[in-house]
């Protein structure tokens, strides 16, 4: 948070861009955006810190912009986590209901959640989230809140997200070196769902797809809970690299061409459109048809969505997506992405726009800010949670996990 407890900060440290959103808690819990800052990201590869100092400088640049716009000093933030080190799986816990009258108590719920997260994970991984999906009482499923009900056997289905301890520590270290306290660490897909998905979409079943610079994140939600998450090691930077190779042009020029003239579906491009393409070295620029760009970009877009579809089918959730797909992230801004996704999935697709906010909404209305705004909303909902005991420390990290379960528990009951 900033100096005043009314302010919440969301910090999205991505592979291509660092975004910082400052929000103010108004009366009756309304969240108003008062500051936005962003800067090109340096020092990350596929969501993982590979160079400390450039990452710190990128964070500082984004935070300073947000501070100037908001007129407050940022001292702590809710930080998003993503990258190839993220793992997830579903788990189940079972306990006997205690008490003479067999009424489910809060202690029973705590015990069953503890049982559900008592699982074996690799030594280099730590639990980030334990997200309850549903409770089952004496074989009766679909229960959101079992407290007060009668039964003998209580089960809990949960979604567990784990992350690499060292990857998280390195990111937290970078944020700390930028003179910011990490108040909480949150899976970016979970945070983004706070801002871009409607209650109906979460209930009916939806796939949230975040096309970032180095990775593409997937989260599947149904009945208001997350049932599956995954991270693919492809993203917007791969479009740029494809153009650089296919057009034989420097990567910075390929990025500019992608933003200004790119399209992921060749049939949407006028065959008469031509653009100037810079050459490598001292060679003169060339004129190329814009459709050539689309013919290079379209196979990569199709590859990403086919990989996502294969992941969804492999996990067995292809029949859950009754509300279709929602695309966010900078990569989703490429024209034609929604059309390609619709062709691959044969489902309705839309670009997600941050919602649930007031104030300076226009600067953050794009899908590329869905995660940063979601982090601010998540931080606002959990603002009573204590900051991590010692940012980046394994013990503090585990304490944070317990805090996440307790915060959910108090919110539900």
Keywords:
single chain, 413 residues, alpha/beta, Nucleotidyltransferase, domain 5, Dna Ligase, domain 1, six-stranded mixed sheet, 19 strands
What do you see in this structure?
The protein has 413 residues and is α/β, with parallel strands linked by helices. Among the domains are: 153 residues, ATPase, nucleotide binding domain (Nucleotidyltransferase, domain 5); 77 residues, Dna Ligase, domain 1, CATH 3.30.1490.110. It is built from 11 helices and 19 strands. The protein has a 6-stranded mixed sheet with strand order 11-6-1-2-3-19, sandwiched between helices. It has a 5-stranded mixed sheet with strand order 14-13-12-17-18, with helices on both faces. Strand 17, helix 9 and strand 18 form a beta-alpha-beta unit. Helix 1 packs across helix 3 and helix 4 crosses helix 10. It is globular, with a radius of gyration of 22 Å.
């Amino acid at each position: 948070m900033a100096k005043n407890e009314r302010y919440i900060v969301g910090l999205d440290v991505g592979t291509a861009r660092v975004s910082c959103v400052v929000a103010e808690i108004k009366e009756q819990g309304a969240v108003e955006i008062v500051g936005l800052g962003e800067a090109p990201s340096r020092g990350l590869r596929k969501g993982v810190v590979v160079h400390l100092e450039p990452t710190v400088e990128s964070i500082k640049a984004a935070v300073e912009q947000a501070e100037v716009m908001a007129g407050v000093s940022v001292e702590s933030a809710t930080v998003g986590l993503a990258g190839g080190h993220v793992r997830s799986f579903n788990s189940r816990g079972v306990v006997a209901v205690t008490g003479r009258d067999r009424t489910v108590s809060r202690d029973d719920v705590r015990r069953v959640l503890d049982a559900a997260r008592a699982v074996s994970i690799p030594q280099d991984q730590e639990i980030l989230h334990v997200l309850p999906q549903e409770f089952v009482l004496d074989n009766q499923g679909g229960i959101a809140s079992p407290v007060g009900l009668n039964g003998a056997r209580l089960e809990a289905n949960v979604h567990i997200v784990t992350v690499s301890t060292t990857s998280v520590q390195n990111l937290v270290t970078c944020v700390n070196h930028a003179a910011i306290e990490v108040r909480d660490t949150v899976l970016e897909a979970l945070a983004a769902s706070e801002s871009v998905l409607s209650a109906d979409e979460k209930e009916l079943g939806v796939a949230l797809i975040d096309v970032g610079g180095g990775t593409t994140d997937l989260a599947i939600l149904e009945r208001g809970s997350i049932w599956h998450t995954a991270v693919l090691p492809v993203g917007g930077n791969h479009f740029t690299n494809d153009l650089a190779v296919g057009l034989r042009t420097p990567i910075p020029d390929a990025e500019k061409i992608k933003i200004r003239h790119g399209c992921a579906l060749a049939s949407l491009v006028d065959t008469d459109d031509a653009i100037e393409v810079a050459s490598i070295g001292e060679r003169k620029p060339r004129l190329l048809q814009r459709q050539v760009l689309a013919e290079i970009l379209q196979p990569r877009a199709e590859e990403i969505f086919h990989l996502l579809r294969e992941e969804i089918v492999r996990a067995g959730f292809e029949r859950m997506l009754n509300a279709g797909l929602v695309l966010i992230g900078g990569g989703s801004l490429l024209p034609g992405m929604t059309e390609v996704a619709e062709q691959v999935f044969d489902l309705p697709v839309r670009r997600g726009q941050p919602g649930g906010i007031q104030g300076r909404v226009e600067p953050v209305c794009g899908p590329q800010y869905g995660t940063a705004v979601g982090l601010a909303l998540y931080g606002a909902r959990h603002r009573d949670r204590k900051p991590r005991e010692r940012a980046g420390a394994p013990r503090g990290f585990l304490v944070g996990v317990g805090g996440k379960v307790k915060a959910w528990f108090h919110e539900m009951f």
